[in-house]
Write the C-alpha cells for this entry.
Amino acid sequence: MTDIAVADTLRAIERFLDSSQDPVLCEPGEEWLAITPENFVAEIRGPCVQLQAWDARRNLTRRVSGIERELRGKLVLQVARFGKLTGTIELIDRRRAVRDNVPLRSARLGFREQFRLFLRRQFPGYKLAELTTEADLEHSLSPAYPRALLRQGASAWAAIGASSRAPQPDGILTFGLIWLDYLRCREPSLALHGLILYLPAGAEKTTCLRLRFLDPAAAQYRAFVHDDQGLEERIDLADYGNLDTHLDHYRRSLAQPGEAPGVESIDRGDGELSFRVHGLEFARTQGAEVLMAMDAQRAAELSRLRSPDAADRRHPLYLRNPEAWLESQVRTHIQRIDASLASEPIYGQVPAFAATDRGIMDLLAIDHRGRLAVLELKASEDVHLPLQALDYWMRVTCHVERREFAAHGYFPGRELTTDPPRLLLVSPALDFHSSNERVLRYFSPAIPVERLGVGLEWRKELKVMYRS
C-alpha cells in the first residue's frame, strides 16, 4: 500500500473502534476475541498496518493490506498471508450488528454438496458413510471444512475439503489429520488407509509441500484441486518439491549495544539493533539514528510494567506479545531448554518467514557438534503449531542441504553438519493444544521433533517440566 492508503486504513480502524460499544475481532473459523484498549494495538509497520490482539489464551497478529468493506457495525479487513495469499478478518460491534450466520451457513452447505459430488465421481466404488460440516469442539474438528468417511467393506478413507472461499485453506491438513486420527480411534474395525484432500486451485502449494514430509507408513494421501466450476483434478505431490525460500546475507550491526539494566540489545541481522524489554521492542537503530517504537512515557515505564514481578498483571504492556517474552527467556537461558545448545549465536526469523502471520517466534541455534536446532515458540495453545513449525523447519533444512548458512555469514567460525535440524516446539506445559501430539504422529521419522513444556511461571523462571 501507499503511505496514504496505510494511513487511511489505520484511521478507518481507529474510527470504527471509537464508535463501537462492544467490539470483537473475528477470524473465520475461530472464536471471537473481545477487544479493549488494553488488549488491542493497531500501528503502521512499514508498508502495512499491523494488528495485535490478545487474551489469556491467544495472541493474534495480522498484517492488514486494505479495507474490503465497511458496514454498519462491521469492518472487514484484507490481511496478507504467507505465499502471497490473502484472507479477511472482521471487526464487529456486537451491540450494533447482529451477526448474520445464514449466508455463512448457506455457503457451507453449498460447498458440502459440491464435496459430496466430488467424492461420488472420484470414488464410485466407495459408500459415503458420513458427511458433515458440524463443529465438534471436543475433538477439535472445525466446521469450516466438510469432512467425510468413505467405506468399501472393511476398507475406508477419511476425506476433507476446503472451498475457494476458505479463510485459511492451509488449515485443512491439520483438521484432516485430526479427523483421520479420530476415525481410526472411533472405528477400530476399519482399515483406514489415509486421507483424501479436496483443495482450492491456487491455494494448494503449502498443503502439498507439507504432505511430502509426512510418514507414508502412517497414512496414504490423495490430493485433488478444484476450480470455481466444481471441476477437480488429482495432483502429483512430486510436482511440489520446490520451496519458496530465501536466505539473506547476515549483516552485523556496527553500533555498540547499550548496557542499560533490563534492556536487551538484539542484532537484527540487517545491520541494525533492536532494543527490547523482555522481548518487547521500544526502539531500534536506523543508521546513526535511534527510532522509538512507543512514546517516551511508556518506554520509561516499560521495565516496571513488563516485569515478572509486576504488581499489575493485567496491564497491556505486561500482556502484550507473550511470544516475544518467551523468546527473550529462551535466548537468555537456552541451555535450560537443551544443554547441548550453544548460548550464542542465536538468530531470530532466519530465513524470514511471515512470522507475524504465524503468531509463532522462530529461533535458530546450533549445538556443540555443529547441528542446527529450530526452536518454535508459542505462549498459548495453537492447533496448527506442528504444521506451521514444519513449514519453517523444511525451509531451514533446504538451506542446510545447500550449505548456505556459512556462506551467508551465519554461525561464523563453526563447522556446520548437514544433518537434518532438530525441531523443538516450546510452549507452557499446560498450553500445548490437545491435538498437537495427534498431528505429530503423522510426521516423517526423519524429522527429529520434540515437545518441551515449560513451567507456568516461565516469565519469572524458565524451567522445562517435560520433554516428549
User: Anything to note?
Assistant: The longest strand covers residues 59-71. The radius of gyration is 23 Å.
